[in-house]
Specification:
Layout: E1 13-20, H1 27-35, E2 42-43, E3 53-59, E4 62-67, H2 78-93, E5 96-102, H3 109-123, E6 130-135, H4 142-155, E7 160-163, H5 172-181, E8 196-197, H6 199-213, E9 225-233, E10 249-257, H7 260-267, H8 272-289, E11 293-301, H9 309-314
Parallel strand pairs: 1-4, 1-5, 2-8, 5-6, 6-7, 10-11
Antiparallel strand pairs: 3-4, 9-10
Bound molecules: guanosine-5'-triphosphate.
The site of guanosine-5'-triphosphate has 15 residues, from helix 1.
Amino acid sequence: MSTDARGDAPDHRSGFACLVGRPNAGKSTLTNALVGEKVAITSGRPQTTRHTIRGIVNRPDAQLVLVDTPGLHRPRTLLGERLNDLVRETLTEVDVVVFCLPADQKVGPGDRYIAAQLADVMRGRRGTPVVAAVTKADTVSREQLAQHLLAVDQLGDWAQIVPVSAVEGYQVGTLTDVLVQHLPAGPELYPGGELTDEPEAVMVAELVREAALEGVRDELPHSLAVVVDEIVPRTRADGSPRPPGDELLDVRVDVFVERDSQKAIVIGKRGARLRDVGTRARSGIEALLGSRVYLDLHVKVAKDWQRDPKQLRRLGF
Ligand SMILES: Nc1nc2c(ncn2[C@@H]2O[C@H](COP(=O)(O)OP(=O)(O)OP(=O)(O)O)[C@@H](O)[C@H]2O)c(=O)[nH]1
């Protein structure tokens, strides 16, 4: 795929990393520091991966793609539980996880909750490594930092522990080196670091997929892919915005199956099942987007999409 010769070099590495940590742990600031200012993230185009990309670290020897998670927190609602499932799924799919722990705050219950979740991820199918990043290292003394590193060490079985300061740029390069070590050999995933980014679309697709599979999981285990075509605010006939309180989002979604028989299953008799799927997915999407939604679902057949890399890419895998 890459037209860039360096991306095809035999010792080039590429893969995904994901930053987790309690609110205010310094994840966004660290992401920006890792990525630097060279990469612009364009938004508004259809997403090309299943997970939201926050930034790409491009080096001659590696491409590290930083993906977002909606936030790991103790679930309080069903949607929260769904989100946490999604988080865990993301965490098992990336090549390395970065657990951010701010140096200026004691290791607390929130960190221990995340550490327990990460223990599962490390023990999981792929044995995803977790690197602990002690963030905001500039805010404490050397002694405090040393103590904090010890506390973090006792919290779990981390692949490495790296103190960093995103603000001062301290050890940001070291952290990148450590993360790159955990990536598999491979060419650039995004040639030249170009990407599209559409946070909500990923979650909307997951909600539709979940609803579409409900009750028919045995019949359609992996033959269903969901692509969000667009999410646009409905305007009035003259193109002006609708009045406050009366906003409506048009959400157009394609559900791809492999065969006509599967299309029939998803749609159901006279479209009854698809209407159900739409109703269920819509309530989740409205909760997620915080707006009334008109959900437009289309079921399409994409033959053998699981075996066709071109189709797979088109479907966001
Ligand atoms: N001194 C110092 N402050 C930092 C550093 N990194 C982040 N901060 C500050 O810590 C606060 C939280 O940082 P964020 O990057 O927004 O944290 P986050 O984990 O993305 O937060 P959520 O979005 O709430 O999950 C901000 O006020 C940052 O300016 C650092 O390396 N040094």
